[in-house]
Amino acid sequence: MPEFTYTARDNAGEKVSGSIAAENRREALATLSAKALFPIEVDTTSKVVEDARVRRVPGQLLAVAYGQLSDLLRSGVPLLRALEVLQNQTSHAALKHTLHQVHRHVKDGATLAEAMSRFRRVFGDMAVSMVRAGGEGAFLEEALARVAAFTETQDDLRKRTLGAVAYPAVLAVVGTVVVTVLIVFFVPKFDELFARLRDRGELPALTEWLLWTSRQLGGWLGLLILAVVVLGGWSLAWRLRTDSGRLWFDRIKIRLPLAGKIFLNLAVARFCRVLGTLLRNGVPILRSLEIAREATGNRVLGAAVADATENITAGQTLAEPLAASGRFPPTVVEMIAVGEQSNNLEEVLPNIADSLERQTWRRLDLAVRLLEPALLVILAGVVLVVVLALLLPVFRLMSAF
Question: Which pTM was predicted?
Fold first, then answer.
């Protein structure tokens, strides 16, 4: 029989922790209620071995699969048959394999949430927790529909963000490559042509500087710069694999001018949307905070949420420690406080996420609109300097005849 660990409060409000044996989580909750304990968090202690062969699945495909499974169950199709239908109709290899394994585990007697928990790399903690709450609360179809809507929203947000920054990034990379090739390979061809003016001391300083830069970039200095860039990139990638490195990078991201506010708002919006969705589906507050903390994608913000979780365990509110962290906007903290006071936090949090995302998109759109012409002006200025440096000696040669 599986064993569950729990954190609960008794009639006196004291926190109690322990473990109980039960057939499933619902039975564990019933046992705690029979002991006059109010459960805060209940989790199985058994370790689930995840299938490491399964690759990630695009969010859009997962959203469609969740929605179709919800529709099939609402139409009265049995769960095993619904999983089989989804498996047969999908053409994505990783999703087909995952659905096949989920179908096999459910057929062997596991619940849908237990089967999905073996593939957290595909489904994620949030989806597993919501499906578990839906299965135990007899609203599985609604839980799957909400997971589908949430997954689609998050995937759309990710694509919009990537789409917004893709053009400036490509413009910067292509412009840098073109200017580098121009200086390293094209400019040296004029060196011999301008030798006469150099000997007479009539070569313009701008042209002399350009030719010197070209020679240096084409020689040891260029190799040194390339080595520094490669070594620096490798060092950064290695550091970002460590917890301290990721914390350092997350701290830098939210402190960047202009972009830092965008990164912070997106992280707070993800936290609010995930937490609100989980609470709405009956997931315990501590487990919801744990999943939402990971969903922020920012360890600085996650640390603030972890501190808030400890306060809630001690019987305090969520808004106070979030405000004390200084990482959450005052308006967000105030709305969370109002939601706690009116006991509708699960309804307030998605509204906060919507508002933050709208503000962030306006800010991001403005930043991109300013960045694109700025990059074009910079690249045009560099090219103009190169052209002027090459044309000024030509004009002097022409005026000498």
Answer: 0.65
